[in-house]
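re: ur question from earlier - yeah i can do the single chain one, its not a big deal. heres the input i used so u can compare w yours
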Amino acid sequence: MTIIVAITGGIGSGKSTFSKEIKKRRLKLLDSDKEVSLIYKNPNKDFLNYLKKIGLGKSIKNKTINKKYISDIIFSNKQIKQKLEKHIFKIVRKKRFDFIKKEKKRKTNTIFLDIPLLFENKLEKQFDIIVSIISKKETRLKRIKNKKKLSRKKFNNIINTQTSDIVRKKNSDILIYNNNTMKEYLIKINKVLDKLIL
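and the output i got, formated as C-alpha cells:
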C-alpha cells in the first residue's frame, strides 16, 4: 500500500526547505508550486488563450508571460483571480492524479505532495497523512522579503487569501514549528521523514 503524504503551510513557512530534504533522500515528490511555475514557463496555446479570455492578455508578449503583471492584477480583482486559480487548479489536479496513479502502480511505499492551498481547496480527505508547517507571521514576512523582495502589503494580501494556522493545527496529523534556526528546522524535518518512511 502506498502512503500519500501532503505537505502544506502558509507563504514563507518553509515548505520549499521540506521539499528539498525529500529530494535529497530521493523520495517521490510532486511540488504544486513547481507545476504551476512550469505552466507559466512553458505555456501552451490553450493557456495563453485562456489568459486573453479572462482579461490578462496584456501579460503576454512573444508567448512569454509576465507573472508580475498577473500578480498585480489578481490581488486587486477577485473575479479574475478566481477564474485563473480554477483553471490552474484543474491542470495541477490532473498532474497530481497521474503522479499518484503512477506511484501506486509502482508500489512506492511513501509519496509526498507539496500543496500550499490544501485546506483552501478542501483536499484534506485525499491524503493519508497531512504535515503542516507552522511559522509566525513576522518570521514568514522576513523570509519572504529577503527571498522575493515582497512588500508587506502584498504579503498581507496573500495571507488574507490563505487559511489560518488555527485550521492547519486542527486538521493536520503532524505539525512542524519553524520559528528558530535553519539547523533546528532541518532536524525536525528529518525526524518526521524518518517516521514516515519506515
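The radius of gyration is 17 Å. not sure if urs matches, ping me
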